[in-house]
Amino acid sequence: MKNKSYFLGLIKWNAKKYNLNISFNNPSLSLFTDRTQYYIIYCFLSGLAIFFGLLRISLFYTLAARSAINLHIAMFNKVFKTSIRFFDINPIGRIINRFSNDTGLLDDIIPSTISDFMNVFMTVVGSISLTLFLNYWLLFPTIALAIFFIFIRNYYLTTSMEIKRIEGIVRSPIFVHTGNTLSGISIIRAANMEEKLNQEFNDHVDFHTRASSTSIYINRWLGIRLDSITIIFTYITLTSCLLIKKYRLLEIDSGEIGLMLVYLLQSTSLFQWAIRQSCEVENLMTSVERVLEYSELETEPLDKGDRKPPTGWPSNGEITFDNVSFRYDKNLSYVLNDMNIKINAGEKIGIVGRTGAGKSSIIQTLFRMAEPDGYLYIDDINIKELSLHDLRSKLSIIPQEPTLFIGTIRTNLDPLNEYTDNVLWDALAQVQLKETIKEMKDGLESEVHKGGSNLSVGQKQLICLARAIIKKSKILIIDEATANVDFKTDAMVQEAIRECFKDCTVITIAHRLHTIIDNDRILCLSQGRVVNFGRPYELIEDDTTILHDLVFSLDKHERVKLIDVAKEKYINYEIPFTHF
Ligand SMILES: Nc1ncnc2c1ncn2[C@@H]1O[C@H](COP(=O)(O)OP(=O)(O)OP(=O)(O)O)[C@@H](O)[C@H]1O
């Protein structure tokens, strides 16, 4: 009843304002003779609008921020735990692109675009509803124009989404190129390749600009069509109102026509903006799609295993390959075939072979970077029965590129903070780094820059070695660095390995023969197959072996030195080997 009174009061006020001849004999109309009440209602409604507006914005942005955070966490967790194969087939620039650009869009642009779209869309819907309410004849042209508009919008979207996708793809090479250029800046300068690299960078930028400018052009294409639609709609509204008035098809007065036109003209630009933003939201959803793709990656089952290894495993370090084959992916061919070898506890094994023979793939097999076929035992436990975490935590590796993390010497030696200072200093002493680290201002707390860039290659290798000593693994795998370390450091590393790991099984992927020539046995690989496996001197003496070929391809001085070392080792150490 009260609502009705307010409504009648409003009509009365409008009637007075526009000088309309309406009878207000109804006693209820006399309720609103005082304008103050309308101001109060107006203020109340404005207050409600502000309240709900703020509530809507805060709820919406909180929700958007939470979604972005959750998506980022999900993507990070999956990428972090996914298989190594993923990093083989996805360049680092592509991954950075998703973590930077796509996540950035998710954080800033997508929420504001959606909010903007909803705002403007509701305003446009309001304007059109009011127009249709006052002049329902406009329903027919509205439907016709809506169909036309949906057609144009879909036509635009098919192209623009594809262009956005291409834009995302061609952005990645810019990141890759920049990263590679920065990491190899000294080599580029030394080789005087700045011009070439600059040209390559410009080419990548050009590709990206082509895609992004096409995106802008098709946006303009859409804009022109949308403007045309709104102009046609305004024209039809106006003409229809004039015709309606002339032929008295509807009771409509000039005030209402004015009101319709004001709203329609106001919504002309808003209409275009609403459609553009709706398309933009769909386009931007490709970023959400890309983030979702990474957040649904398959992860390695790190903690899943059929068996828990006994404490102290592996106590001997005996490794048996029983018919082991390995490939990097189900769709690729095998790179190691039917390996049948037994490495005895505490043996020092060197692996040689031409490039691509499968030397590094043996490491991938031991760490189960992809699942090998056959049976691979360490101290009588089939490693395929263990969880990846249990397996990997028991093996130590010194990779070709010694990896150090941003942090301190301490965090690099003992990332999980499990050992005392004494243990860390002892390990540093064993690799002859104690004095060097002591001389640093902050000792164990001295800073290590990204990738250990403030340390020499040799020092990085020695820190990796100290890390392996601290871990006390029974099995050490060394992917010998191809990067040149000076002779003295190399000798120091070799000596440290011999001393600190004399009771451990050490497998060395050799790129230089002098580092493995005094090993107990040498495994020769060719095209992923074991060709020879035996004592170095025996293999050198046999002119059908790969080691013989490798040794005899060296100059005489080197060759004689290697043969002497192998012979001495052969004469002095007789170890009974069990050949599998
Ligand atoms: N990540 C990978 N994905 C797919 N195939 C790979 C991968 N790494 C190596 N391969 C393939 O496996 C085979 C053996 O490579 P591997 O790196 O084990 O040889 P290698 O003897 O260590 O060579 P190098 O002495 O040059 O390091 C090669 O044919 C190589 O193309």
UniProtKB/TrEMBL annotation:
Residues passing through the membrane, by range: 39-63, 132-152
Cross-referenced Pfam families: ABC_membrane, ABC_tran
Keywords assigned: ATP-binding, Membrane, Nucleotide-binding, Repeat, Transmembrane, Transmembrane helix, Transport
GO cellular component: membrane
Membrane topology qualifier: Multi-pass membrane protein
Record SMART domains: AAA
Subcellular location: Membrane
Residue ranges of every copy of the ABC transmembrane type-1 domain listed in the record: 20-283
GO molecular function: ABC-type transporter activity; ATP binding; ATP hydrolysis activity
InterPro entries reported for this sequence: AAA+_ATPase, ABC1_TM_dom, ABC1_TM_sf, ABC_transporter-like_ATP-bd, ABC_transporter-like_CS, ABC_transporter_C-like, P-loop_NTPase
Every ABC transporter domain range: 319-552
Major localization listed first in the record, in broad terms: membrane
Family per similarity comment: Belongs to the ABC transporter superfamily. ABCC family. Conjugate transporter (TC 3.A.1.208) subfamily.
Family annotation (PANTHER family): ATP-BINDING CASSETTE SUB-FAMILY C, MULTIDRUG RESISTANCE-ASSOCIATED PROTEIN LETHAL(2)03659
Protein name: ATP-binding cassette transporter subfamily C member 4 X3
